[in-house]
Specification:
The complex is a heterodimer of chains A (80) and B (141). With 80 residues, chain A is of the alpha+beta class. Chain A has a single domain, classed as Beta-grasp domain (Ubiquitin-like (UB roll)). Chain A contains two helices and seven strands. A five-stranded mixed beta sheet of chain A has the order 2-1-7-4-5. A two-stranded antiparallel sheet of chain A has the order 3-6. Chain B has a four-stranded mixed beta sheet, sandwiched between helices. Chain B has a four-stranded antiparallel beta sheet with strand order 7-5-9-10. Chain B has a two-stranded antiparallel ribbon with strand order 3-4. The longest helix of chain B has 18 residues.
């Protein structure tokens, strides 16, 4: 299964990409996904907490990510 | 049906008059405006410019939620929230919020609610450029 990852702000700089395809073995919770992501991209350990949005909506830790989802890595926002 | 919200994210210069015109109405006793401007310093350090980037489709949705919520929380008539992206120089305007209401208190409160919530929930990020480098705001422990 493949999901699309989107990176913004500091996370795009750290990962060196704005968007990439990411394989998951099976549907996984946001909580598990975050652990897996930080393990794959250890640079993400260096920033403040980030949150996840799935298909353009903020997601809690229990939400399950499915094949084809668009998963955005949202570092602390600073608009205004 | 009357459109009571105006939401925009743009790389163009924001237009204060457009925002005022959108919310203004004969039934209203006033319009409250918040105009965010780029400040020349942060934590005693000189800032040269700011760069704003957004997760645009989601940011539009989140701005719409704020506007809709403001309409349910306060007796206001209309609300406009416009945010700029791209590089902005000192004194330029990254955000405008305009609110109209029959009585001023509701518009003041709704305007403050909107900018406070925007800063917490809308996926927009700013990078500060200094003489000796650049930094994403709020991103480092």
């Amino acid at each position: 299964m493949t999901i699309q990852l989107l990176f913004f702000g500091i996370t795009a700089d750290l990962v060196g990409d704005n968007s990439l395809d990411y394989k998951i073995d099976k549907p996984i919770s946001i909580q598990k996904f975050k652990e897996q992501l930080v393990s794959d991209y250890k640079v993400l350990k260096n920033i403040n907490e980030f949150v996840i949005a799935v298909n353009e909506e903020y997601a809690n830790d229990e939400l399950i990510i499915k094949d084809g989802d668009v998963v955005a890595i949202i570092p602390p926002v600073s608009g205004g | 049906m009357i459109e009571r919200t105006s939401i925009k994210i743009t790389s163009d210069t924001l237009n204060l008059q457009d925002c005022t015109n959108f919310v203004d109405d004969a039934s209203c006793g006033g319009v409250v405006l918040f105009v965010g401007t780029v400040r020349n310093s942060t934590k005693n350090k000189t800032v040269n410019l700011l760069e704003f980037s957004a997760y645009e489709p989601m940011a539009v949705k989140e701005l719409q939620k704020i506007a809709d919520k403001a309409l349910t929380l306060f007796p206001i008539y209309k609300i406009a929230i416009h945010h700029a992206v791209g590089k902005l120089k000192i004194g330029e305007v990254p955000v405008i919020i305009a609110v109209s209401s029959a009585h001023r208190k509701a518009a003041f409160e709704a305007c403050e609610f909107a900018i406070d919530t925007l800063k917490e929930t809308v996926p927009i990020w700013k990078k500060e450029y200094f003489d000796d480098g650049e930094i994403w705001v709020n991103s480092h422990p």
